[in-house]
Design a protein that fits this description.
single chain, alpha+beta, Ribosomal Protein L22, Chain A, three-stranded antiparallel sheet, two-stranded antiparallel ribbon
């Protein structure tokens, strides 16, 4: 049973500005997300925009937003197949467990100037 759906869009230009500020990156992104983005060179802002959109979509799927959730407690990575996945820790894990959901699904898409994420929470 679906317990929540969230969608969000982020403009890549916003992340281009953030890439020049390591404090912002460290505040909002898990260290592994930053490492992956940096390894993508000029594609870093696009990667970060998709991941930030996923964090916002996760909060919307919870139905509570991101209040009381530390954003770097939400980590968006890619499986070996290339498909994205969300891992949650600390405050994000607590919110996820409190929601009653036990599965997460994510879809990311992006173009040159924007990235969109959709998150679906499910209780099996």
């Amino acid at each position: 049973m679906i317990t929540g759906i969230g969608v969000d869009m982020v403009y890549v230009r916003r992340m281009e500005r953030w890439c020049d500020n390591s404090r912002l990156l460290e505040r909002y992104f898990h260290p592994q997300e930053i490492e992956i983005a940096v390894s993508r060179g000029k594609g870093a802002p696009l990667s970060l925009a998709a991941r930030f959109a996923a964090k916002e979509a996760f909060g919307k799927a919870l139905g509570t937003g991101l209040s009381n959730i530390t954003l770097k407690d939400i980590m968006v990575t890619n499986r070996q197949s290339g498909s994205p996945e969300i891992q949650v820790f600390g405050t994000a894990r607590e919110a996820f467990e409190k929601s009653g959901a036990n599965r997460m699904h994510i879809s990311l898409t992006h173009e040159r100037d924007s990235a969109i994420a959709m998150v679906v929470l499910e209780r099996a």
